[in-house]
Structures are given as C-alpha cells and as structure tokens.
UniProtKB/TrEMBL annotation:
Its EC number is 2.7.7.65. Residues 182-233 form the PAC domain. The keyword Cell cycle does not apply. It is an enzyme of class 2 (transferase). GO terms for cellular component: plasma membrane. Residues 265-399 form the GGDEF domain. InterPro entries: Diguanylate_Cyclase, GGDEF_dom, Nucleotide_cyclase, PAS, PAS-assoc_C, PAS-like_dom_sf, PAS_fold_3, Rev_trsase/Diguanyl_cyclase. GO terms for biological process: cell adhesion involved in single-species biofilm formation; negative regulation of bacterial-type flagellum-dependent cell motility. This is diguanylate cyclase. The chain crosses the membrane at residues 21-41, 61-80, 346-365. Keywords: Membrane, Transmembrane, Transmembrane helix.
C-alpha cells in the first residue's frame, strides 16, 4: 500500500489551508475556458459545415449532448478520485488510531509493571505531578489521583527531611540548568508513615505549553541502602564487640590529629591491653573469653565521653581516642577506666565471676607525636611499660607533664 504517497499528500493538504481552494479554482477556470472555446468554435464550425438550419439545429442538439456527456465523464472521474482519496485517508486515520491505541495499551502495561513509579511533573517547589504510573501505590502508598495536582499531598512533602529536600532541590536545579539528566537518592515518607529510600532518574523537558517539566522514574532502593549500611558497618566495625576496627580507628585518629593541629589543641590516645587474658581463655574456655571481651568493651564504651572513640586494635588490645584532652586529663581518664574494669564483675552463666584487669599506656598530641603511627607506637610502648611494672596500672609515655607525676596506685588483678 503506497502509504507514504498518501501521507505526503495529506500532509500538504493539512499544512496549506488555501491549497484546496486554489485547486478548485483552477479546475473551474479550465472548465469555463474549455466550455467557452467548445461552445464558440464548435458553433462556428457547425454553421460553416451545416448551412441547412434543420440540420444545424440537430447537430447543435447532438453537440450539446456530447458536451454534457464529456463533462459528466470528467465529473465522474474527478469525484471518483476524490472519494477514493477520502477513503484511503479515512483508512489511514483508522489504522493510525488503532496503532496509537495499541501503543498506549503497551505503554500502560509497561508503566504499571515497572518496579517503581514513572512520573511527569512541573518543575516547581511542590513537584506538582501531572502524571504518575500505578506503581505510585506500591512506592508511596498514595493513589495516583491523590498525588496528581497535589490533591492530597505534594510529592515534595514526601521527602523525609529539610536537609534532604534542600540537597535534592539543589542537585536537581543544577542538572536542569545544565540540560542534563539527573540521578538522585533520598528518603521518602510513605502514607503509612514508614520510611523508604528511593533512587530517581529523570530529565527536564519542555512541556506542551513551553513550560519546563520533569519526566523520570523513581525506584525503591531500601534493600540496597540497608545492604550498603551493613557493608559499611562490616568494613568499619569489629564483629565481636561492635567497636570500630583497627582500620577505622586509625582513620578516625588521623582525622582527630588533623583537627587538633588545625585548632592547636591537644588530644590523647589510650592503649589498653587485658592482663593475662590467655589464662582466662585457658581456664574458662574461648566462649567465656569472648563474653569477657564483649562485657568489658561495653563497659569501656560506656565510661567515656560521647566524643571519645573506642576501637578494637587486635585480639585483646583496644584504643581510646580522647579529643581535646591533655596528658593530665588522659592519665586521669585512663586511671578511671583501669579502676572500673578491675571492679567490674564478669559473671558466667554458671555464676562464676571472672576477675580482669587492664594495663594502659597513654600518649598525647603533640608531646609524643603528630602522626597516628608515632602516637600509636608511644602509647603501645607506655602500655608495655605498664605490663613490666606489674600490670593493672597506667603509664604515660615519657616526655609530658603528666608522665612526671607519681605512678597511680595499682589495683588487684587476675594473675600474679
Ligand atoms: N576469647 C577470645 N580470645 C582472644 C581473642 N583474640 C585474642 N584472644 C586471645 O587473647 C590472648 C592473648 O594472649 P597474650 O598475647 O599472651 O596476652 P595475655 O595472656 O593477655 O598476657 P599479657 O598481655 O602479657 O598480660 C590469646 O590467648 C588469644 O587467643 C578473641 O577474639 N576471643
């Protein structure tokens, strides 16, 4: 079927409103000129060839009939062609309407089965929705018509808090200004009050009336977000105690050192090692050792300020980072921790109480180093000093005011 020919013709007719009138006028002019010529010249010829009036009258009757016949045939052919064109145009329209309906059906099935919600909204403060797919119910708990035109709630109001809302608006505005597609991640409060994390990808386009609208898709990525948080926890936390692991504790110490250096403040590091922990494992078993580790580290974490950072450095070695603390304060804190651990009662399921003591080395910035590894080394050496002094005591690394103070009293501990 020569559809393209019909298409072009239809397009020409559709685009130029004067074209039909022009063509009709031409047809009428040709008809008038041809009719005039025929009547004038045929009459002259008939008068020349048939001088007999009776014969001339008969010839003119036949000539008239012939003219009517010819114009009838022309009219028939022209009308037939026009009707055929109309029929083909109607058939094309019907076909296009069917194709459009089919595409709309496919699109609607696709939209409804998308894992998230497709949308079209105004680029305004409310993200006024012009269209949302059925997936909106699964995603937000709201029906499409509750969101469209902000009838019940505006989409912008679903974004969990102001900080997120401001960040999203900023990123979105920047992407639209650059005429680029945007990709956003933010928390959304659903109709039932629960919170989910969504990922949105979209683009700013020109609307029907020249206004700026946004089109895109929004997906629920809460599971991925949860996994990310878990992975981050796993990468930074110690599995047994839940404290920061060695890598994270080192990173946090480096961060604190930078801050201390920038604001010219002191800070301290405690290196804590359990005394005779091997004996606990050997006497009560590894599981009991784990229980002691968990119980004592919980005690340590509860005994320091919220700004302080407790990390597990290895087996039964722990570090405590004390921001904005000088040697004297650090020594006092260490002594307080030592005392609390020695007084702590670690009770097994069988009712057995496991005694435990710790040896603590103290190093401070800037007296004992301005870098993490130097500070660690100083605190570690001080801790070994404490071990060699009989354990269950605190030693401040040499070279600071507090290290020249008398050694704090020793408490009773497990072992010798
Ligand atoms: N239960 C348990 N034990 C651990 C863990 N990590 C390390 N240990 C044990 O901690 C013990 C450390 O022993 P040592 O390094 O000899 O130190 P210590 O017995 O505490 O003796 P001093 O430090 O010299 O007072 C070893 O027996 C390790 O097996 C753990 O996660 N759980």
């Amino acid at each position: 079927m020569p559809r393209s020919g019909i298409d072009k013709q239809s397009l020409r007719w559709l685009s130029d409103r004067r074209e039909p009138a022009r063509r009709a006028l031409w047809g009428a002019l040709i008809y008038i000129v041809a009719g005039y010529c025929w009547i004038t010249f045929s009459d002259r010829l008939a008068e020349l060839w048939f001088p007999d009036p009776a014969m001339l009258s008969a010839v003119q009757t036949w000539k008239g009939l012939f003219f009517v016949l010819i114009t009838g045939v022309v009219l028939f052919v022209a009308t037939l062609r026009q009707f055929d064109k109309d029929r083909r145009l109607l058939a094309l329209q019907h076909h296009q309407r069917q194709a459009l309906r089919k595409r709309e059906r496919q699109l609607s099935i696709l939209m409804d089965n998308l894992p998230g919600m497709a949308y079209r909204c105004l680029f305004d403060d409310h993200w006024t929705m012009l269209f949302v797919s059925q997936g909106c119910v699964r995603l937000t708990g709201y029906q499409p018509d509750e969101l469209i035109r902000n009838r019940v709630v505006s989409y912008a109001d679903l974004i969990a808090d102001k900080d997120n809302s401001d960040r999203v608006t900023q990123e979105l505005t920047a992407a639209v200004a650059r005429n680029e597609s945007f990709s956003l991640e933010y928390p959304v409060i659903r109709k039932d009050g629960s919170q989910i994390w969504v990922w949105e990808r979209g683009r700013g386009v020109e609307g029907d009336n020249g206004e700026r609208v946004l089109e895109g898709i929004i997906l629920d990525v809460s599971d991925r977000k949860r996994l990310e948080v878990e992975l981050e926890e796993m990468a930074t936390r110690d599995v047994l105690t839940g404290l920061y692991n060695r890598r994270e504790a080192t990173r946090l110490l480096e961060e604190e050192l930078q801050r201390a250096s920038r604001y010219r403040r002191s800070m301290a590091l405690l290196w804590i090692d359990f005394d005779h922990f091997k004996d606990i494992n050997d006497t009560y078993g590894h599981a009991a050792g784990d229980l002691v580790l968990r119980s004592v580290t919980r005690l340590l974490a509860e005994s320091v300020r919220t700004v302080d950072i407790v990390g597990r450095f290895g087996g039964e070695e722990f570090v405590v980072i004390l921001p904005e603390m000088d040697a004297r304060g650090a020594a006092e804190t260490a002594e307080r921790l030592r005392q609390r651990v020695s007084e702590h009662r670690c009770i097994l399921g069988s009712g057995v109480v496991i005694p435990l003591t710790v040896s603590i080395g103290v190093a401070v910035y800037p007296d004992h180093g301005d870098q993490a590894d130097r500070l660690f080394a100083s605190a570690d050496r001080a801790m070994y000093q404490a071990k060699s002094q009989g354990r269950n005591c605190v030693v401040v690394a040499p070279g600071s005011h507090a290290s020249r103070r008398p050694k704090p009293s020793q408490g009773a501990g497990f072992g010798p």
